[in-house]
Design a protein that fits this description.
The protein has 326 residues and is α+β, with helices and mostly antiparallel strands. The protein has helices spanning 16-35, 70-73, 102-108, 229-241, 246-260, 295-310, 313-323; strands spanning 44-46, 80-87, 90-97, 117-120, 132-136, 140-149, 153-158, 166-170, 175-186, 189-202, 207-212, 224-225. A hairpin with a 2-residue loop joins β9 (175-186) and β10 (189-202).
């Protein structure tokens, strides 16, 4: 069991980065005392059209998987790093490569400014991983809603039942997809609503039907999953047409359902994106330029990733069951 007691740090135990943060804070306080109120030149307002692909999150929740590792994020591989961006106090870790200034972070995070937005620091300011970009948007607030994630029916063979006999082992339950949007109103009317984040708050529970094989029959641990909807039907047919099995499809449905609820534009609080929750989402560009919107491109990347890292999608499934991630 994890220890959640708060640990008290001593000065001797502080890391080099923590010492740097303390030093920077003291220096900033000295500047304020010496120079009075910060000049308005530290803020700039820019005009743009809309904001897209923005995920609100606690920056401490930044996770690493699906194609990224700590070396990537620290610049050890392809210059990748992350910078915190806040809009109306809600934060997101923007992951990208070769950040130079504030504008480069917003560009790679697909964050577009709107008329009246106040941003700090200004677009031309240089950034590091310790930089926090703040955007204040007037007339906007956050709205959170929940929608159902449908469950699948999984048929599993068992030798404990007579051949051909069926029995429901587990009743299915819908899951919950939580979506937070930035809603802008004017004159009492909603003029725009842009998704911040959309992720699986509660995974659905599959309906499990046991199918008897009789004495001496075999049993299937993963089972055969009945496809639901266009995306799952395509995934099923594609896998079987390319040498995959029903078990491969069942493993695919399990992982994607738990990661994204089969929502192509799902954005986890960590910044992970899409059906497979690739981190960053742009990793999927290796499978196609339409990675942000095409479920087929995302699934092809997902299978390639599972094959490369776990040997197969069933290997990724086994890892997910043991670790609740992959």
């Amino acid at each position: 069991m994890a220890n959640h007691r708060k640990q008290t740090k001593t000065l001797r135990s502080l890391s080099k980065r923590q010492w740097l943060k303390i030093t920077a804070s003291v220096a900033a306080a000295a500047c304020l005392l010496g120079g009075g109120i910060v000049s308005y030149n530290a803020y700039e307002t820019y005009t743009a059209n809309h904001i897209t692909a923005y995920s609100a999150t606690d920056t401490n929740a930044l996770g690493v998987s699906r194609g990224a590792d700590r070396a990537d994020l620290r610049g050890g591989n392809a210059g990748n790093s992350y910078v915190t961006v806040k809009i109306n106090g809600k934060a997101r870790a923007v992951i990208g490569s070769h950040f130079t200034n504030v504008k480069s972070v917003l560009d790679q995070g697909d964050i577009t400014l709107e008329p009246g937005d106040v941003i700090k620091p200004k677009l031309t300011s240089k950034v590091t991983e310790s930089t926090t970009i703040s955007i204040e948007r007037a007339g906007s607030d956050l709205k959170t809603s929940n929608e159902a994630i449908g469950f699948n029916t999984v048929r599993k063979e068992t030798s404990s039942l007579p051949k051909g006999q069926e029995k429901t082992e587990t009743e299915g339950q819908d899951g919950v997809m939580e979506t937070t949007s930035l809603v802008t109103r004017a004159g009492g009317k909603v003029i725009s609503s842009n998704v911040f984040t959309s992720f699986v708050k509660k995974a659905p529970v599959d309906k499990v039907v046991l199918v008897g094989t009789g004495a001496g029959g075999s049993s299937s641990s993963i089972g055969t999953t009945v496809p639901v909807g266009e995306m799952q039907q395509w995934a099923h047919d594609y896998l079987l047409a390319n040498g995959g099995t029903e078990a491969d499809f069942s493993a695919t449905v399990f992982i994607i359902t738990h990661e994204s609820g089969w929502r192509v534009d799902a954005q986890n609080p960590s910044g992970a994106y899409g059906l497979p929750q690739a981190l960053p989402g742009s990793k999927m560009a290796s499978a196609g330029a339409d990675w942000a919107t095409n479920y087929q491109t995302q699934l092809k990347w997902f299978w390639g990733y599972c094959n490369g890292r776990y040997g197969s999608v069933q290997g990724a499934y086994q890892y997910w069951v043991a670790h609740s991630n992959y």
